[in-house]
Amino acid sequence: MSDLDPPLLRATGLTVRYGDRYGCQDVSLTLWPGEVLAVVGESGSGKTTLLRVLAGRITPQAGTLHYRDAANHEYDVFALPDAARRRLERTEWAFVHQNPRDGLRMAVSAGANTGERLMANGVRHWGSIRASTRQWMERVELETARIDESPATFSGGMQQRLQIARNLISGPRLALLDEPTSALDVSVQARLLDLLRGLTRSLGLATVIVTHDLAVARLLAQRMMVMKDGKVVETGLTDQVLDDPHHPYTQLLVASVPQG
Amino acid sequence: MYVAVKGGERAIDAADQWVRTRRRGDRALAELTVAQIQAQLHRSVARVMAEGALFDPQLAALAIKQAAGDLVEAAFLLRAYRTTLPRLADSLPVDTAQMRIERRISATFKEVPGGQILGPTIDYGQRLLDFSLLEDETSSDALAPVAKSIPTRSIPGDGLATAPPRVTELMSRDGLLEAEQPAEGDPEPADLTREPLRFPAARPLRLQALARGDEGYLLGLGYSTQRGYAHTHPFVGELRVGRVEVSVVAPELGFAVVLGEVELTECQMINQFAGSDEAPPMFTRGYGLVFGQGERKSIAMALVDRALRATELGEPETAPAQDQEFVLSHCDNLEASGFVQHLKLPHHVDFQSELELLRRLRADHGARES
Amino acid sequence: MSDPTIHDPAFNFAYLDEQTKRMIRRSILKAVAIPGYQVPFASREMPLPYGWGTGGLQLTCALIGLDDVLKVIDQGADDTTNAVNIRRFIARTTGVQTTTQTTEATLIQTRHRIPETPLKAGQILVFQVPQPEPMFRLEPRETERRRMHAMADYGLMQVRLYEDIARHGRVATTYDYPVMVEDRYLMSPSPIPKFDVPKLDQSPALMLFGAGREKRIHALPPFTRVEPLDFDDYPFERQRWDSACALCGSRESFLDEMIMDDAGARQFICSDTDWCGAQ
Prior knowledge:
The complex is a heterotrimer.
Chain A: E1 9-18, E2 21-31, E3 36-40, H1 47-54, E4 62-68, E5 74-76, H2 82-90, E6 93-96, H3 110-120, H4 126-139, H5 156-168, E7 174-178, H6 186-203, E8 206-211, H7 214-220, E9 223-228, E10 231-237, H8 238-243, H9 248-256
Parallel strand pairs in A: 3-8, 3-9, 6-7, 7-8
Antiparallel strand pairs in A: 1-2, 1-4, 4-5, 9-10
Chain B: H1 8-24, H2 34-40, H3 42-52, H4 57-66, H5 71-84, E1 100-105, H6 167-173, H7 203-211, H8 215-226, E2 235-249, E3 256-274, E4 282-291, H9 295-308, H10 324-329, H11 333-341, H12 348-369
Antiparallel strand pairs in B: 1-2, 2-3, 3-4
Helix pairs in contact in B: 2-3, 2-4, 3-4, 3-5, 4-5, 7-9, 8-9
Chain C: H1 18-33, E1 39-40, H2 54-63, E2 69-74, H3 81-94, E3 97-98, E4 107-111, E5 124-128, H4 142-150, H5 155-168, E6 179-181, E7 185-187, E8 206-211, E9 216-220, E10 226-228, E11 255-259, E12 266-270, H6 273-278
Parallel strand pairs in C: 2-3, 2-4, 4-5, 5-8
Antiparallel strand pairs in C: 1-9, 6-7, 6-10, 8-9, 11-12
Helix pairs in contact in C: 1-2
């Protein structure tokens, strides 16, 4: 990533209201190719709402969102016709749900789950789809012998890896991760985070990762944003924010993490 | 040597003749007349009119006779007949508030203006087989007994009461029950007989589908809500059975002309209250309306109607009775009966294809094993 | 060929009232204008049950005229009970000439087969369709399927074929095989066997598909490109038999399997009775 690259994602003043409550209020951010941004806060902070807006799945009442695609065209995400957005969703964007069952087809095999984007994007050679899905299963450290099994027979950690493979096989440039490890056992989380760190780096993926866990932010993200009650209270380089928090809420968050 | 069997036409004619013979039955017995069915099996007639979606008691009775008592088949005969009839006009909406009441009860209040009118009902008797019906009737046939308990009344014979005010109106006036509001702009409701059902379907279209839906199917679904599959805390606010006028505006005259009366059963259900940020909590509604005296169907319909309003009322959709695509795609018994029974038709070409595949797969399997 | 007669005066010509015929014809025009797209229509109850050919019947009744010659087949044969029933109904309500010869017919109503005799320009083939939606087993919700068609989002169907190959080594769909029409709409060709699918592509005839219970019409105008879904390395294959027809010797037609006796002896006979007789 160089300073000369234009930003991949530009959000200005995003606001989502639910009746009297704010899902998120006046949130702006910029994301450059290859960088990882963590959005941190407690539940109810608005971080998941923000992520869904960034994914184009919730339309905000105010604010704009622009995405720059692989051909260097910038689009107003909420002005895109449905067909164009769906195409981006299965090519350049990745969205990883907290609960892997929400992001997988439980009724089809692991191989079909992984290969679906290729098929949806017009690849018509069964052998090469099969080969690509095996490759990706290996990359996320899944046994390829299980390629024809249903994800229902996989553990939570394996399902999450499968969801990641399913998303990354199309070579996306933007990844949005909604608490990807929260639903997993603590013992499994560390390995998955390692995998994510490796992948985001080797693929140069611009990533927004939502988490309540500061350690995840520290491990994966160069920059972080702290949210409370729908608003952004602090943003900056991860190490700086965590080592020297300015906002009282950030200080509270940092202080409440058991050290060591 | 295989010789192709011809004579399908003769076989069909013979089958048809056998049906007629079977329908007529023992010739030593008097033939059942359409008039008898219309007069003495009026509950069957009601059901056939409801599911045939056509009010014509005589035609319904004819269909029942022709179908040898198969009511789903009889409803089918009525609906098929509709298709060849020209459509002359749309009536004005019938006003059930002006119903000439035969029976009217409310479960929500002990006393209501206009009274609890029991009408012709079996609800308060016992289900004991009446063996006297095995004999032909004698001339000393008693009228329905007058109910003894006070303050409920029963008005026997044809002493139909004038229209009492609706219980639901009274509650709605006090703000306790949601008002029955048309959708914004009061658009003309879609016509299920002129357009196919598409989803999501608005309430008027859903009610049309339910009104002609199979009674057994809706009964099961309505019952499921009572057993906890999206319970809606239902109370019968009012159940009315009686006759309403049907009027048409004749274009040349410019005013409404009464064509006649139809018998209807109407159920107004009062359900689980709901509120929102803007509005204080109030009871919600379910509605059922059928041709003829069809209380079970109208109550079941009202239960399902209310369950289908889940999304509109902000309730989570968790149960089959709330899933409109599921409920409405399968409630028409003509569609259901036709498709279920179509499995009797020849499928040997499709089956031959499956057989061929299966043999190949078995051959592959055999080859792998060895 | 039967002689024309007068139609039964108790019913309107071809049973349907005129407004209904107009409504159906408008739907047909729309379907022809968008090949492979399912046009919703207000299907009427017919004197045959839903599921027994009411969609095809409504199409035929909306189109048929006094100078038409009608052929009706079921499973390829003119004399199966359902074909007989439908042919008699139309003859009774129209008085139109009927035939068993494909070459003589102007209007052919069929259930589950395309005639072996190649069709000519000017002929109309009306298919009876039980389920017009190719993806109905994969996605039960109509609202979601509508969106998939609108976006040409058919990855799910390709996934299904992928799974078949992974599990069975071949595609396991043998009839009602999904096809792409003019590279745009995924279509169900009705439960015709795979064997008949190639006859859809670039046919000189007009092909109309009617689903009465599901209330949809779709169409293939003459000379439309129709390609079965497959993979490049697992191409679409027609069915083949090891034997020839025991009556006429044909090796080119779809064969019905007949069980001849209690010992299970089998014989194969052409499903298309008219074709078989002409060989």
